[in-house]
Amino acid sequence: MSSGKEPPWLRASNHAGESSPSDSPSAQLRQTLRELNNYRFSHLKDPGCKKRASVALIIRVRPTFPDRASFDAEKCSRKAGTDDSRLESFFDQGWVQRGDPEVLFIKRAARKGDRWTSHIAFPGGGRDPGDEDDAATSVRETMEEIGLDLETDNCLCVGNLSERVVTTWLGKTPYVI
User: Fold this and answer.
1) How do residues 68-98 score in pLDDT, each as one tens digit?
2) Which of 28, 156, 161 is nearest to 81 (CA)?
3) pTM confidence score
4) How far apart are CA 34 and CA 18, in angstroms?
5) Which H or E run includes 165?
6) Distance between CA atoms of 24 and 40, rounded to whole angstroms?
């Protein structure tokens, strides 16, 4: 029995075990990103710590064979409208509906004495004094770590998750992420 509160990727399947257009990975991703785009994250006013870190969850849709990506840059550009309309325009493209979503992870360098050595992670890191906000931190860190510019028209910032106070693996230094 469904409670109606399951994540979108659990609500999409039908009872007969047959697939439908809403079962596709792109359809599920579209619904998840819609919800994230409309989500109002909680901001910690006084987290009790000075250090902040941000990461970027980068998702791309890879065209499936024999589709060729014909990205409609005009419909999806920052000049084309709100983030909502750009998100919808992106997912309305046929090659996106038939494509395969992929998530980008990085493997941090192996260095003796580095607490993050060889970790698998999203690109990101600590906030610098010159960073305007957490989004600016993730944009800067992504450029530094993998050379991907998240401020181009080909990228769409969908939203933030709520901030959390966490400690390092040593349990001594609190961070806001």
Assistant:
1) 767 676 777 777 777 788 888 888 888 888 8
2) 156
3) 0.73
4) 25
5) strand 165-167
6) 27
